[in-house]
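Components:
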Amino acid sequence: MSDTLAKNPSITDINRNLYDFTKGEKDVEKLASGLTEEIVRQISAKKNEPAWMLEHRLKSLKIYHELKVPNWGPDISGLNIDNIVTYVRPNTKMAAKWDEVPEDIKDTFERLGIPAAERTSLAGVGAQYDSELVYHNIQESVAEKGVIYSGIEEALAGPYAEMIKEHFMKLVPPTDHKFAALHGAVWSGGSFVYVPPYTTVEIPLQSYFRLNSPGAGQFEHTLIIVDKGAHLHFIEGCSAPKYNVANLHAGCVELFVGEGAHLRYSTIENWSKNMYNLNTKRAKVEKNGVMEWVSGSFGSHISYLYPMTILNGEYAKAEFTSITFAGEGQNLDTGTKILHNAPHTSSVVSTKSLSKSGGTSTFRSAVTVTEKAHKSKTIVSCQSLMLDDKSRSDTIPLMDVRCDDVNVGHEASIGRIDDAAVFYLMSRGLSEEEAKTLIVNGFANPISKELPLEYAVEMNNLIRLEMEGSIS
Amino acid sequence: MSDKLLEVKNYSVASTDDVPILHSLNLTIKKGETHVLMGPNGAGKSTFGSSLLSNPAYKLTDGRVFFEDEDITDLPTDKRAKKGIFLSFQTPVEIPGISLYSFLRAAVKNTGSPLTGKLFRKKLNETLKVLDLKQEYLERDLNVGFSGGERKKVEMLQLLMLSSKLAILDETDSGLDVDAVNIMLKGINEFQQDKTRGLLIISHNMHILNKLKIDKVHILVKGHIVAEGGSELIQEINKDGFIHFETQAGDCNV
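Structure:
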């Protein structure tokens, strides 16, 4: 088997037609590239935002200049912020009806299946195109329960302004790291969700982020507050067409899970392979609250992505389930951080990573159990599968336990695709490609079955696309 | 077309790191025939079986292999399976995340079986019954956590679903209790009904061998076929073991 691959080292380019289409730039408004105080002031001025926000932006910009680029992960020297356009405004206002969205943008989201999903299986949808939301809508029946789902900038001008001010970049302060500071300075767009106490949103809300403009950055901010005893499932999707210049995504997600509340946050990320995905996500969970992350990372050239959960109240729980697939030219550094900061808290981390055609996937986990977190439990399990000899997979698990009556488990496995399994499947008439695809799908299956159905289908399609042409 | 199903000529096989395993084997299985391959441990029986499906863990160093008079020497595993060669694995691998049901569907589709839609489901239910397998197995991941006996039954299930022409049964009966062996016998009998098919059974189980109609026995020792005959050979080995043959093979240039 390995002989076959060795004889045919060239891997044909992957068919990504589903995501890789561009729409040109019609009458868009673009600021100059690079990062200066003037640009930050221009962004702020366009948004007509409260004074504290401009202050926040300028403070973040200062911090950005003070902080250094991380020196421990994949190389991001190919990213030059002077070449990145931080603000690209599509030629439209935010609409609540797809008919009011300009044709080319509407067509983009239609090809991504968003309006169709909204009709069948979502309680609300937000769609962002480059720097601004172009569509936001919530089902009436959900809105009637008092659930707020809107653009965050829109919310900043309404009755929830104070709540946003109290929470905005409090979990992820601009001092967290250089790209959090960048986000604080130039953020634009994103969604705000508030679910009132003891309210259950039966079907998911979804925000989709599409970056169309070459050489641009996307810096959306997602803020979700799930109040006491409330339930929500939120889905985030991202994609972009491929360009020859670097694009940057430095979004920020802040999630507040109240007492006894339950939040599931699902992501399918399929950025194009010229994207630097330096995204920061963090959740804080109060007593008896539950935070579930489900994450599929398929795209981007380079990713740094480690969603963090702070278990801040007794019996708070976190589950982190993810899959990462690194193909040719991709270096995906992903993982999670969990902070057990109260007694009886528990966390389950279960991740899978795949690498192929020279791709690198690295899994990092950092679980900290503080002195306060008596009787806490944590289980970390990560499995990696390398599909050929050129690819790489690393696992870097960290555990910092400062309490002695805790239950800690960890298991990791790194392996290559099993030739005996491929032979077995081929002996039943499956081609080598079909056999490997089936094995990879099977490997991914425990994760994909956690995803909403249409996303599970999408994930299987992505795996199939990734596997196509990988064997000649 | 002749009545030959499988023919190997001067068939020599080595491991990928060039250790010779099989030496110039010649063997022909005709349609409607059941052959038995016997030999001591390490003789190369399983290697022979899986090399007939072009297992990339081995390489052919000499000779040709024909299936229904067509030279299939250069065909890869999946193409040979599509022609109608089936191997029941001695130790089937676990494949997590794939249900037995979806695997069966894929296998049936890929081997060009006429079983589609309702026919597939009907045949599946009947076969499950014959093999005394519960419906629940269909939803379980392929071979994951299956006992040795369950795995063997699942191999037999595939054989009966796939409508292959030549079945190679590699120790299909090993590790089974008497009841399970009898169930396997039922399966083999069903396969034998169709006289256009052929069987190559690798086994030492007298219970099975005594109950089947056997046309030819081949004794493989140290990679050489050292004796061939009818089912009387089985009784001879049952009585005296392979020692007599091993001495013979000792004279061969290995």
